[in-house]
Amino acid sequence: MSDVVMAEIRKDYLYHLVLKGERADGRAFDEYREITLQTGTIRKADGSADVRLGKTRVLVGVKIQPGEPFADTPNKGVIITNAELVPLASPNFEPGPPNEVGIELARVVDRGVRESGAIDLPSLCIAPGEKVWIVFIDVHVLDDCGNLMDASSLGAIAALMTATVPAAQYGLGEDYPLPVRDVPVATTAVEFGDAIIFDPDTDEESVADTKLTVITTADGSVCGMQKSGPGFLSQDKIYRIVDIACERAKEIREKFLEV
């Protein structure tokens, strides 16, 4: 049986479940899968986090080292975010340069950290115009079972919150905690029919017309959004997603990030 036929059967099955107000795994439409978070999992990293969202698993490592600032921000530290999609994590991932999925994932994680002002970048200036601390955030997808955005976002901020600037290693004084000022959390929903479903798994993502990721700060402000897919969302649905996203993000902060 062809992949196209299987996709149509799967879409029809999920659609009829949605009409009955159900999901394949029994969750409510706005309910997340079980989340587990462990920090300090990579010994050689300056900060790290292992996130499991259902069967999705993401490992995030943070490395901090001195380097030159960008020309337009000579008095600020630098953030560089990368995402690696390990081929064993999904049959859709292939070896080689990052594809559009990996690029989008890295950009959304970076946007959440950068636009929220999560890191106090001015305090990472060592010598204006000459040397600053560069923060590398590396996202490694180990198992893709849906909703990589939220898992990666959570892993990134958890790794940053537990990261240490290795000043002593470079003869720049004593080590100190990375100055983190805010806690951005991403919340993703997909539209399927007339229903809005949060924390989609791979099947739900594959049949949804539209996906929207909302990134909020600790005070509930929206600092970033990313829309994927060919479909569109009405204004009312966007407002609804944002409202629920703020609630879910707050729950995640309180439970896993102690904010």
From TrEMBL:
One of the Pfam families matching this protein, by short name: RNase_PH_C
Keyword field: Cytoplasm, Exonuclease, Exosome, Hydrolase, Nuclease
CDD domains: RNase_PH_archRRP42
The keyword Hydrolase is assigned to this record: yes
A single Gene Ontology CC term: cytoplasmic exosome (RNase complex)
Keyword Hydrolase among record annotations: yes
GO biological process: rRNA catabolic process
Subcellular location(s) per record: Cytoplasm
Major place of residence: cytoplasm
Residues of the signal peptide: none
InterPro entries from the UniProt entry: ExoRNase_PH_dom1, ExoRNase_PH_dom2, ExoRNase_PH_dom2_sf, Exosome_comp_Rrp42_subfam, PNPase/RNase_PH_dom_sf, Ribosomal_Su5_D2-typ_SF, Rrp42_archaea
GO molecular function: exonuclease activity; mRNA 3'-UTR AU-rich region binding
Domain Exoribonuclease phosphorolytic: 31-166, 182-247
Record text on subunit structure and interactions: Component of the archaeal exosome complex. Forms a hexameric ring-like arrangement composed of 3 Rrp41-Rrp42 heterodimers. The hexameric ring associates with a trimer of Rrp4 and/or Csl4 subunits.
Function recorded in the entry: Non-catalytic component of the exosome, which is a complex involved in RNA degradation. Contributes to the structuring of the Rrp41 active site.
Similarity section: Belongs to the RNase PH family. Rrp42 subfamily.
Listed name of the protein: Exosome complex component Rrp42
Species for this entry: Methanothrix harundinacea (strain 6Ac) (Methanosaeta harundinacea)
Organism lineage string: Archaea, Methanobacteriati, Methanobacteriota, Stenosarchaea group, Methanomicrobia
